[in-house]
Write a structure and sequence with these properties.
- One of its GO terms (molecular function) is semaphorin receptor activity.
- The protein has about 1900 residues and is an alpha+beta fold.
- Helices cover about 25% and strands about 30% of the residues.
- It is built from 36 helices and 106 strands.
- Helix 15 crosses helix 33 and helix 18 packs across helix 19.
- It is globular and about 135 Å long.
Length: about 1900
Amino acid sequence: MLNRADTLSETSRAELEPGTMARWWAWQFVVITVATVYLSPSQCNNEEFSSDTLINNVVSDPRTGRLYVGAVNRLYQLNSDLAVESRFETGPKKDHRLCTPPVTDACEEAVETANHNKLLLVHPTKNQLVVCGSVFRGICSLRNLSNVEDQIYFSDTNGEKSYVASAEESVSVVGVMSSYSTRESKKLPVFLVGKGYGSHDSTKLIATRILEDYSEWVYFDSIVEASAVQANPFVLRYLHDFRFAFKEGGFVYFLFSRTLGVQDNKNFTFISRLCEKDQNYYSYTELQLNCSASNKYNKAQAAFVGTPGDVLAQNLTGPDKYGTVSASDKVLFVTFSSDVETSSAMCMFPLKSIDDRMRKILDACYNQEGFIDQNLAAYSPYSSKSGNLCSSSNNNNNNKKIRVEEFPCGAEFLLSPLASKPAFALTSEPSLVRKGHMTAVAVSVEMEHAVAFLGNANGEVLKVHLSAHPEMYGRVPSEVTGEKVNKNLLFDSSLQHLYITTEKKITKVPVQTCHLKTDCQSCVSMKDPYCGWCVLEGRCTRKQDCSRSEENNTWLWSPNQACVQIEAFRPANLSCRKTQQVEITIPSLPRLRRDDKLQCVFSSFETEAVTLNNDPVKVVCSLPSPEQIPRTPAQQDYVSVPVRVLVNETIEVTSGEYRFYNCAATVMKNQNTPCISCVTSQWGCQWNAQDHSCSDESDAVSGDHVIKPQQPESCPQFESPNPPLIPVGHQIPISFQGKNLDIYKDSTFSIGTERMERVELEVVKEEASKFKFPGFRFEYNQQQEVNVSFHIKERETQRKIDSTLTVVLYDCMTGREDCSLCKHADAKYDCVWCSSSGKCVYRELCKGQEEPALCPDPQITEIIPRYGPLRGGIPVTIKGTNMGITKEDIKRITVAGVECAHLEDRYSVSTSVVCEIGPKRTPPTDLPLGNTDGQVEIELKGGGKGTSKVLFTYRDPRATSVHPSKGPSAGGTVITIQGDFLDTATKDDIRVSVGTVPCEVLSFGEGITCRTGRYQGSKFPSEPLTVTVWYGKNTSTNVSAAFQYFDNPKIADYKPKSSFFCGGRRIVVFGSGFELIQSAMMKVISSSDEDSVKATSQEFVETAFNKNDTVLEFDSPPVSDGESFRTFLQLDNMMEELKGFDYLSNPHFDNFSHTVITDSSIIIVTGRGFSKAMSAKEAEVFVGDASCQVNTLQDDKLILYAPASKPSARSKRHRRDATDDLLELMVKFGHGRWVVGLVSYPKKDDIPLLIIIPAVILPMLLFIMISIYCYRRKSRQAEREYEKVKHQLESLEESVRDRCKKEFTDLMIEMEDHTSDLSEGRIPFLDYKNYLDRNFFLPSKEGNDDPIITGKLLIPEVRRASTVQALNQFSNLLNSKAFLINFIRTLESRSDFNARSRGYFASLLTVALHGKLEYYTDIMRTLLLDLMDEHVQNKNPKLMLRRSETVVERMLCNWMSICLYQFLRDTAGEPLYKLFKALKHQVEKGPVDAKLKKAKYTLNDTGLLGDDVEYSVLTLQVLVHGEGPDATLVKVLNCDSITQVKEKIIDQVYRNLPYSQRPKVESVALEWRPGSTGQILSDLDLTSQKEGRWKRFNTLAHYNVRDNATLILSKVLHTHPFHQHQDLHDEQNALLEDDNTFHLVRPTDEIDEGKSKRGSMKDKAMTKAITEIYLTRLLSVKGTLQQFVDDFFRSVLCSSSIVPPAVKYFFDFLDEQAQRHDNVDEETLHIWKTNSLPLRFWVNILRNPHFIFDVHVTEVVDASLHVIAQTFMDACTKTEHKLSRESPSNKLLYAKEISTYKKMVDDYYSGIRQMVPVSDQDMNTHLAEVSRQHTEKLNTQVALHHLYQYASKYYDAIIQSLDEDPAAKNKQLTLRLQQVAAALENKTTDL
C-alpha cells in the first residue's frame, strides 16, 4: 500500500506569513507522524494484528479468549479475531537506570526511555492483568482485563521492595499466578517471578509478589525472604536465562539455563521446583535436563506443558525410557539450541520422570550423604562452601531414615537449595533436529496423536507429527516474514487455531487446512494427523466432519498414506474385439448401503455396477462394446482405458486403468518375425499361417496352419545362416535352414535387407530344408562390424515369413590403416595387406598378389615431447605407423643418438611406442658438448627401420624467477616460475615443490604455474624457501630463497552483518594480510533438504570486487529460500566463517492503487521487514527512470520524496504500454527489485492569456515603483558605507601583496631543493609486459585479476594438450586476412558487442598477433581505410578517431603503445618522470587534507585547500626495525596525519626501490619513544580529539613530536582476530565508524550553521577568509613546475631530435589518404593526427604515469596532472579558446602558454612531414624486431583462448559471414573454424 501526503506548492508557501509557516511545518510533521504510526498493512484483516513497535509478550484469557499484547511502549487488548478492543501507551517515560523512582527533574540523567514489556500475567479471578515494564526499575501495575486502559493500581513510591522485573532488555523474566496462605488461613493472591541478573535490578532470583495490600505488605511486595536463592553472590556469575514457568500438581516449576558458576561460560539447562505451599523456599530443587546423551543441545529456548495422547505416551513408556506414561500425564516439551552448532532440537520430559528424579536427588541428600551408587548425586548450588554439604548439614543424629514424602515442601532442618550433579541429569534424546533456531513450541493432541507446532528464527511455524519416528509434515500457512517467532505460541480456546507472534505481528491461522485438498492422493500425502479422506463424500476432512467416519474404510487417515485402490481385474485384460463383464477387486471398499448407487465409468462409457453379496469388496460391471473402445495407438499392441468407480453418480471412490489388447498389432513389434511376435505376446494370441494373420485364441479355427500361443518353435521360419561373417566389398553366397515350411512347399521366396538398397534376391532351394542365395556386395565403412538382419518374403503374396537370419558385416580397412594393424587383425576375418593399393582388404579382393611377409618400414610422424633434459629419465612417446605388431617386435630405439628403453606396458600396436630416454653423454669439460639434437630412430626385429623428420633436442631447463614471492601458510597461492627451456619434457613428467611442500602443477609451457600446498611449519614468516622443479627421475632446477610463507590473513571485523535472500548488499571486511591473497570469495552454504541436519548442501558464491591489504569488499551472494545459512570467506585455501552473519527473508511490499504525485509530495511505501538488512543510504527507489530520495527507512515503511518533475518510463515496454501516463514505482534493495505499484503526475491546466497578462504586469509595475523609492532612500546610505568599504579593500590589498611576496620567496627555495632531490634516484620503468598489461587491460572488469594479465589458462588438465593444439590452429586461422576481417566485421555488426567489448577484443587481438606485428599493421591499415571511407562518405571526416568506439581505433591506440615504448624509455620518459616527481614534491611541501584530498599547493582550483593551516617542517630521524642502526632523515610537516608521515618515511627510506616492492602503509607501524616507554602512532585512537560530533585525525602535533625526534618503523606481523577480545572488538568498532572524522578542515555542521545564524556577520567575516585569495598559490605551483612542463612538452613535440619511425610512418599514411579524398582539408588532417597520437597516447600516459613507471599516483597529484593534460589537449586543437573572467581557473592558469604550445604542435607536424619517409620494408623490419624481443613474455595462449570465446559466442553469425565470402570459401575457412570449434568445445559441425 502506498500513500502520499499532499503538501502546499512552493509558490503558495512563499506567500505565507511567518506564523502561518510555523503552523504549516507543524502540520507537515503531524501528517508524516500519523502516516508513520497508523499506516499499518494489517488494519484491513481481522485475522492479523500489527503493532507499531516490537512485541515482547502475549498472554490469553482462557475464559474470554482475549489476547493481551505487551510491546515496546504499547499495551493492546485484542478479541479472539485479533481486532483491537483497547490499547494503552506505556511509554516512553523519562527515566534512567541510575535514577531511583519516582523519577523527577532532580535526576539529571533522566531521558525519554522506551518501556519494554517484561511480564504479562492474567489474574482471572479478580479480572486483573499484571503488567511489568523495563522503566522505573521494573515496577509493575495492575490493569482491568476488560479494558486495559483502566489502571487499577500503580505506585512508584514503595522503594526497592516493589522492583519486580528488570530494566535491561536482554534480561528474561517469567512468572506464574499462585496463592499464599497466611497464619489466619487467608488466601492471598500472589505471583511467583523468576528473573535473570540486571545491573540495577532487584537481586532476587525467585520472588513471591503479593497482589493486594495486607498488613505491612503493599502491592507487589516480596513476601518471602529466602537468602539461599535471593542473595547477592550468585546472580552475576551464573547468568540465569529464564524461559518458562508453570505450576502443576501443587508445585511451581521454572525452566532456565545457567552456567555452573566456574570460569567456563558453557550453559546448562535446569528445571527448578518449588512446593506451592512452601513459604520459605525450603523445597527449592534444581534438576539438570540434557537434550541428547552428549548434551549437545544445551540451552533451552522455549517450552510447553501438555498431555501426550495415547500414541506418544506409549512411545515414551518403557523400562529404558520413562517407566509407564499415560495419555493424561503431563509432558514438558522443550526446544533447545546449541553453543557449538547452528542446529536446534526438541526434547520431551514427562513431568512424572522429573518428579521421580528430583525425589531420588532429595533422598540421596537426606539419607545417603548425597550419594547414589557411590557417586555424588546432589549438591547445594550458589553456595560458597566447598565439600559435601549433604553429609555435613544433616541434623538427623538418630540415623533415622527421612522419607521424602513426609516433607514434600522441605523443612528448615533439611538442606536447601539442592541441585543434581551433571551425571544425574535427566536425559532425553532429541525427537526432532532442525537447522537454525527453534524459538517456540506448542503441542496439541488429535485422535490420540500428538502434534507439535515449532516456530523458528525465520518466522516459519513447522508442523511435526510426534509419532514413534517424529516427522515434519508441513508448515503453518502464514506469510513468512524472516522475523523470529516469539516464544508465546498460543492456541485459541477451541484448539482449532494458533496465534503466531513475530516481531511486530500476530497472525491467527488454523491448525489444519484439510479442505484445500480435493483428491485422496493429495490429502493423504500431507501426512497431517488432523486430516483424512472421506471416501463416500469425496472430501479431505477431519474425522468428526465425515458423516460415516465410524464405519470401516469410510475415512482414511492421512498419515497412513493409503487411498482406496483397485487390486485386480478379472479378466485382467480383454481383446478389443470382445465385450463382457469385468469383476473388480477393491479390498478397502467401504460397506455400501442399499440407497448407495454404484457405477463404473470406462473413459466416457458409463455402466451400472453391483457388489457381490458373498464378497462385498468385489464390484461387477459391464465392459464397453468394441466400437466404443478407443483405437490402438501406433507402435503399441494395446490401449489403456481409464476406469473410475463412482458412488451416487458424482463421488469417485477409486480409479485405475483397464487394458484392451489387439492381437493384429503385435506383429508390428518385429516385422521380420510376424508369427513369433504374435504367439510370444503377453495376450495369448494365435497365428494363422494360411491367412498370415494374428488373432485372439479360438478353438473354432484349427489345423496345422494354426500356431497356438507360446509355441514359437512351430512357426514357419528361416534360421541358421552360414557363414556368419560377411566382408565388405565382396559377394559371398549365404546358405540357411528352413523350418515348418510344409504350407509353403510350392512357394518361391525372395530375400532382402535394408542395406541391400531395396534389392530383393531370389532364394534357391537346395535340399528339403536347405536354402541359399548368391549373396550381395555390401558397402559400409563407418565401423569395423555391424549386424545385418535379412527378411524373407513369399514371392506370390509378398508376405514376410519369419526370418532370424542375422550375419555380421565387417570391414578390414576400418581401423587398420597400415600394414602392422592389418596383420594384427583376427584370423577369422581373413584380412591381408594389399601392397598395390596400400590398403587392408579381404583376401579375395587382393588376388594375384602375395601378402608381403614383412610390412614397410616404420614411419614416425610425431615425437612428444621434443625436448628432454641432458640426464634423461623421462618417457618419450613416438607416434607413427607400421611400428610392429606386438611389443616384442621393437628391437631398438635411439633418440638423438642415445639409447631409449622401451616401456612395453605402454605400447600400442603399430601406432605408438613409449620409451625412457637415457642421459646424453657429456664429454670432458674442456671439449665442446657437440650436437644436443638429433633424430629418433626405431628398429624392428624383422629389420625394418624408421627415422623421424623432426628432431629431438637435449637441453637442461633453468628456472630463474618465481612470482609472487610470498603467500599465506594455508597455501593456495598460484606461483609462476619463469626461466629458460622450462617447457622441456611434458607436464606429466614434472613436479614442483616449495621447500618440502608439494606445489600442484596447473600449467606447463615457457612458464610453469602451480598452486602451493599448506605449510606445516610454525615460524612465520618462514625462511625464504627454495622452489624446485623436477624433470623426470634425474633432473631438477631450482630458484633459491624464492618463496616465503607468511601468516594467514586475519579478519578483524566486517559490516554490515545481514543480507536479504536476494543478495547484492555491500559487505566490507576489515583485517590484514589480504594482499597475500589471490582469490577472495564470499561463500554461503545452505541445506537443500531442510528436514535433515545432514542434508546435502548447495553453495552460493560471490568474488570480491575490491581488495587491498586491509579491506575486502563483496556483494552478498543471492541465495534461494532456506532455513539456515552459514557464511564463509574463502581466501585461497583458507576458509573462515563469518559468525553472526544472517540471511533474512526478502522484504514484503504491500500493493497500492494508482497514486497521483503533486508538488512536494511524500510517498509512503508500506510492508514488512525493510530494516532487517537494509539502510536508507543503501536503498534505491525509482519513479520511472528517475531516482527518489529515501528520507526514512523503518521496518514497515519507506518515506520517499518523489522527483519534482515527471520522469520518463523506465523500460521501452512500459513506455509503449503507458498510454495513461502511469509510471512504475520500483524499489531496489541490493539485487532485489520490486515494482510496488503505479504512480502518475497531474496534467497542468492551461491558464488563459487574459488572466496571465494582468496577473504578471500589475505586480511588476508595483514592484518597480517600490524599487525606485527604496533606491533613492538607500543611495545616501550607500555613500556613507563607501568610505568604510574602501578602507577594507585597502587592507585586503595589502594582505594579498604580503602573501604574494611570501609565496614567491618559497618558490625560489623550493625550486632549488627540488632540483637537487631529483638527481639522486633512478627511473623505475615498468618492463614491457607490465607496460602493455596496464595500457591494454587495466580498465577491464577484472582489473589485475584479468586472466590475460595473470596468464592463467583455466582448462582441465585432461583437455590441455588438445586445447593448446586447437588454439594453435585458431592462431593460424587468425593469420588469414580474409578470416580476420570477416571476424571483426561480424562482431562489430552485433548490437550487444559494445564499446567496452570492442576495446577488450582489440587488446586481446594485439597480444595474440604480437608475434606478427607487420601482419597486425596490415590489418589495421585495411580497417582504417574502411573507417575513413565511411566517415568521408557520411560528410563527417573530423569525427574520425575522436573516440575508441571501433575495434580499429583501439588497435591503433595499442599499436602506438607498442611502437613508442622504446621512445618512452630513451627520450620522453625522463622528463615525464621528473615532472611527476616535481609535482609530487611540490604538493607534499605544504599541508594536504587526508580526508578532503585537498592541498595547499596544487594546480587544480577544486582541490585547493581554502584555509590557512598553521604548520612547521620537522626533520625526523627514522630507524627501521631489523635493518641496522643507521637513521634516515625524513622531512615531514607537524600537521601531517600519521598515515601521511608513514608514506613520506617509506618514500625516503625505500627511495631506491620501485613502488611495488616497497612495504605498504597498512603493513608498517610507527613508534615514538620520547622516554622509557614507546607509543604506537595511529590516525585514530582513544586519545583522538573530538569537536562536537566530529573526531580529528591524529597528527605529529597532536602527539607533540618535536624536530629531530627519533621514530621507529617496523612491520606489522599480527593483528587480533575479531573474535578474540570483546573490549578490543568494541573499540575497533567505535574507531571504524567513519563519516564523522576530519583532518585539517572540519566540515560545517548543522549545529555550527545554527550557531552562525545566531552570530553576527562580522564574526563570520573574521573566521572565514575569502577563498579566491588562495588562487595565488596556483600561480606559485605553476611557476615552480613550468620548466618541467616545458621539458616534457619539448621531448614529445620536437621533430628536430628523435621521432619514432612509427609516428612518421603513420602520419605519412594519413597524408596519403587526405590527398585521396577531396573533402579532407588541412584542419581535418590536423584533427586526424591529433586524435591518433597526442590525444590517443600522450594524454593517456600523462594522466597515468603508473602506466609506464612503477609508482603510486595519489588523488591530489592526479588532480594536478589532469590540469596539465587538459593544457596539452588544448594545445593540440585548432579551435581558439576565448577566455573571460568567468572562465575556469584551470583554463586561465596556462592561457598565456597555450599559443606557444600550439605553435610547437604545428611545427612538430610540419617537421615530420619534411622528414625522410619510412618505407614499408623498414617499418616491417622494426616491427619484426619488436615481435622477436617481446612476444615470448606475453600470454598469447590466454589471449587466443579469450578471442575464441568471442568466436564461440557469435559462432553462427561468423559461419554465415564466411559462407557468403568467396575468398573465405576458396580457403575453406568455414571448415577450419568448425574444426577448431569441434576440438575446443565439442561443438556440433558438419564434419
